[in-house]
Every structure is written in C-alpha cells, then in structure tokens.
Amino acid sequence: MRIVDILYFLFLVTLSLDPTGFHSRLKDLLFVVLVIYGVIYCLKRRQYLAPINRITFLIFLLIPLWGMFIAYITGNLNDEGYARGQMRSMLYISIFFFVVTMRLNVILKAVWINGLIMAVVTLILFFLSQLGGIFLAAIYDYCLASDNYTMASNRNFLGYTINGLYYKAGSLIIFSFIYNLYQYKGPFKLFFTIILYLSLMVAGSRTPMLVQTMILLVYLYDKNIIGKFLTRVSALVLLGMLVMLTYLLATQENEKSNEVKYDNFESYVEDIGDKGHPIWGAGLGSEFYAKGRGVKLSYTELSYMDILRMYGLPVGLCFIFLFFAPCFWLWKYFPRSQFLKRYCLGYVLFLILSGTNPLLLGSIGLTALSLFMAIVNKTSQMEIQKEEELLLEEGMTESEEEETEPLVVDNCLLR
Hints:
two-stranded antiparallel sheet
C-alpha cells in the first residue's frame, strides 16, 4: 500500500467523524493533497477515463454555476451562504482523480475499515448515552456544539420510543456491511457483522434499520445458508413483513418526522408547479416556504426535491440521473461478480437514504459518487483490455499489451 493510499484512508476517517470540520480542517487539506496528486498521476500516465465519468465530472462542476446564474437573474438569490457551500461541496467529486490511481482491493478495504471505525465509535457513544446522567448531558451538548452527529430523541416507532445516535456519514457503513458479508473471510466475520448491523440499528431512524435488514436478507438468499427452499420461504415471509413495516412506519400518525416530510413535500410541489419555474428552476440559493417547518428555507432533508426545485425538471432530472449513472454503466461492464452487484445495490440504497437526509449534495454524497465512478473506470478498463487481447490473438494489431492491475472479484483475480 502506498503512502498516498493511507492518506485517502485518513481522508475517509476525517470525513466520517468530522464532516463539518468542527475539530480541524484536516479533511480539506487531505482533499487538496490527494486531488493534486491524482491529477498529476493521470496526466503523467495518460490515465483512461470512462466517457460517463468525464461527462459527470464536467456537469457537476457546471450545474451549480447554472443554478447561481438563474437565481441571480430572477432575483431569487436569498441564501448566498448555502449557494457557495454547495458549489464547494461539488468540488469533492474531484477526489475521483485520486481514487482511480488506487488498486480496487485497496479502495474497498479502506472503505470497509473506515465503516468499522465509525460503527465502533457510534456504539460506544450510544451505550454511554444510555447510562444517562453526566454521560448523556456531555454527549448531547457535544452533538449540539459540533453538529457532527445527531441524537434523535423521543422517536416513536409503532408505540415504542427510541433515542438514537448516528454520524452524518453513517450511511457509508452500508458499504462496509456488504464488504464484510461477501468479501471478508477472517475469524472475526460474525463479530464485525454484528457491530456493523447494530451501528445502523441504533441510528434512531427508520430508513437505516430497513436498509441493513434488506441487505442481510439478500445475503442469506445469495449464500443459501439454510437451504434454497427454506431461504426462499423465509425471504418471502421476511420481505412481506418488511414491506408491511415500511408501510406502517411511513403512515404512522403523530410521528413528527413523517408529518414534516409530507408537509415539506407538498410545499415543494406547490412551489415548483404553481409559484416557481418548472423548466429552469428557482435557482441555487433561492428560498421557499416549507410547511413542515413553518419557515422559509433554501433546502430541507428531501434532497431530490431540492434539486428539482432549484434547477428545474429537465436539468434536475439529468442531475439526479448522474448519481445513479454508475449503476447503469456497471451493468454493461459487470464481470460475473455477485459481490460487485451487491455493492452496487448498496450504492442504490445509499442514494435512497441520502435522498431523505441532507447528505446527497454534500462532501459525503460526492465522495460516495466518486468511489463508484472509480469502480466504473476500473471495470471498463478490464473490458477494454479483454478486447485488446482478443485483437492480439487474432493478429489484428501489433500494439503491445499494456499491463493493468487485476480486479478483485469474489476473492479471485481477474485481468
């Protein structure tokens, strides 16, 4: 492992445990160093970039400028701080230039270990908070002061009250959970699985609980642990229970989170259709009246609706599609790897989770996107090399075969 790969791991840890830079600006410093190294490396080696990655990178840098322009000419630039903040966040997609210089197995292990660290810290703080007294007061005060993680107190789940504790970047644990289930074969597999599962369970939010349960069900089905027949029957029964639970939680009355989201969603529809501009949007930094909060806001936890409101339907839908584009592109280049397919499923679940929390348009969401852009690049490189080898075998080219790194797929090395 190279020293710069260790720096990327440190970047992930600081991004996860200190996403707002409350303690230091180490995250920003590491980001700048890694991007500079990655750009120089790519230019020197003439690193191949998949077409979808080039398009995604350019659009993510240009769309905020378009949003600022619309807000300025329409006189809707009410929150310049948020507009500048989102433009800075979009720059985090540049970390992609460094990630493509790493070996795929190193990338995946760095994300896995980072998730384990987050899970352990989350569980320690959660259990300390349950002791009450001075521990609860200290942790709660720190939450309010640092804004690095949120304590969800008095959340009602079908009659049960749960206090939850989670980091803003906690959704990244999804990728560690999948890697641990499908790739890690060490003696602590069960122990790590329990830690990762519980860290999402104690988040105090419905979505992470449902997501990690769905991942576990898929894993049990894939590995045929209790036999095909029993696995399928159990999966169908549990899936039905999961769908029912999702419906009950989503329609639960007197649940403040549901009421706020529904009211805000209604406000978005009214603002886009009646008061706003559905074609070109209201602009980045514009405000709208959110019924759920009862005040004017420039954004809420409904990130996808924010995109459509600010950028309009045509540009907004294109913007949203680019977040999901790696999934469609990977399907074209997928090697026969169950792990990579499930990793891609985890990314879709991450996007769903981020879409109901203000994570998608920040450094956390852009870092996750850059990770999958890099996976796209490496799988497409593998496909190009296969085509070149085929041409060499047929005697259709005299170019020398360029050595590329092997890909780790289900514990096998594929070139």
